[in-house]
Write a structure and sequence with these properties.
Among the domains are: 7-70, 3-Layer(aba) Sandwich (MutS, DNA mismatch repair protein, domain I); 165-222, 5' to 3' exonuclease, C-terminal subdomain (DNA polymerase, domain 1), CATH 1.10.150; 233-352, DNA polymerase, Y-family, little finger domain (Dna Ligase, domain 1), CATH 3.30.1490.100. Helix 10 (204-211) crosses helix 11. Strand 11 and strand 12 form a beta hairpin. The chain contains 13 helices and 14 strands. The strands form 4 sheets. The chain has a 5-stranded mixed beta sheet with strand order 5-6-1-7-8. Helix content is 37%, strand content 25%. It starts with a strand and ends in a 7-residue tail after the last strand. With 356 residues, the chain is an alpha+beta fold.
Length: 356
């Protein structure tokens, strides 16, 4: 199953403030700066508003929308409730973000009277626990389940019976397939492939020549095949945080204060997963969008915000920046070890991944 909460951030805002229910809501940064839409309610989407759109444009398209700054603590709290509901049915839950996850319910759905009945149970449980609606797609693999969950949104439920995967996928645009963005879509359309059926009915070599090894995976997906398993935890290699400023900043007290704040965020994430880092890196984006990274390796691992900020400051000092202005600063920590100092990657639930 692929479960996806409908308009997650915006739905929580409407849930917490009844006056917003039934009205257009956009969650994201200020239009006066470089704010973008993090989420839009379905009422706002009717005006063409969508996530990642500049907030200034979103409010021009929908002047009656209420803009709300994100409350990630609240969203995280609700996400944990939702994942708990999922795990009450199966331990095999792979969160993809705060508001969506894959569930492997092999061998469990019969206890509920079938896959559809289990999905209906989950929808009722999420609604009772959080007040939110969830759309669920059910299939024999990740590709089919994810596409199915989007089929009847919002509050949807789509079950693709075994053996009908290719038929279900055939009429869809190639953009529906996992990993196909605007760029890949243009390549496929230029080569004459507009529908999933066009890919499925061609030789896999066509796509290997276009996309390399991934081309074969694309052909398999178009034919309804996907062997990926649900992964409940992964090996984390780094922890990081970054921020795009509302206005460009020169090197000075304001930039250094922002660096300290980001370092504290990285330190909190390290402590939260019981890890320390030896390698500290900074990411700088200039006002002309040129982006550079610099890193150093400490003799001893750390999870201390002051030490992380000091290392980042040292890296910034060594960057040529006279007269330059910066639009983004990030700090990333890698070469992780656990709190006891044992080297290696840190296994964590996917849901603990901090958004950058």
């Amino acid at each position: 199953m692929h479960a996806d909460i409908d308009a997650f951030y915006a739905s929580i805002e409407q849930l917490d403030n009844p006056e917003l229910r039934g009205k257009p809501v956009v969650v994201g940064g200020s239009p006066e700066g470089r704010g973008v839409v993090a989420a839009a309610s379905y009422e706002a989407r009717k005006f063409g508003v969508h996530s990642a759109m500049p907030m200034s444009r979103a409010l021009r398209l929908c002047p009656t929308a209420t803009r709300i700054s994100p409350r990630f603590d609240r969203y995280g709290e609700v996400s944990r409730q939702i994942m708990s509901v999922f795990r009450s049915v199966t331990p095999l839950v792979e969160p993809l973000s705060l508001d969506e996850a894959f569930l492997d319910v092999t061998g469990r759905h019969s206890e509920y009277g079938g896959a559809r009945a289990l999905a209906e149970h989950l929808k009722r449980a999420v609604k009772a626990q959080t007040g939110l609606t969830v759309s669920i797609g059910v299939g024999t693999n990740k590709t089919v389940a994810k596409i199915a969950s989007d089929k009847e949104k919002p509050d949807g439920l789509c079950v693709v019976p075994p053996g009908t995967e290719a038929t279900f996928l055939a009429p869809l645009s190639v953009r529906a397939l996992w990993g196909i963005g605007p760029k890949s879509e243009r390549v496929l359309v230029a080569a004459g492939f507009r529908r999933v059926a066009d890919i499925a009915g061609s030789a896999p070599e066509h796509f290997e020549s276009l996309f390399g090894q991934r081309g074969r995976e694309l052909w398999d997906m178009a034919n309804g095949r996907d062997e990926r398993e649900v992964i409940t935890e992964y090996e984390r290699k780094s922890v990081g945080a970054e921020n795009t400023f509302p206005r460009d900043l020169p090197d000075g007290p304001e930039l250094r204060e922002e660096m300290s704040r980001i370092a504290e965020s990285v330190a909190e994430r390290l402590r939260g997963c019981g890890a320390r880092a030896r390698c500290i890196a900074i990411k700088l984006r200039y006002r002309n969008f040129h982006t550079i990274t610099r890193q150093l390796t400490r003799p001893e691992p750390t999870d201390d915000a002051f030490e992380i900020a000091a290392a980042a400051g040292q890296l910034l000092d060594n960057v040529k920046k006279e007269g330059d202005m910066f639009r983004l600063l990030g700090i990333h920590a890698s070469k992780l070890s656990d709190a006891k100092g044992e080297a290696g990657q840190i296994a964590l639930p996917l849901s603990d991944e901090g958004a950058e």
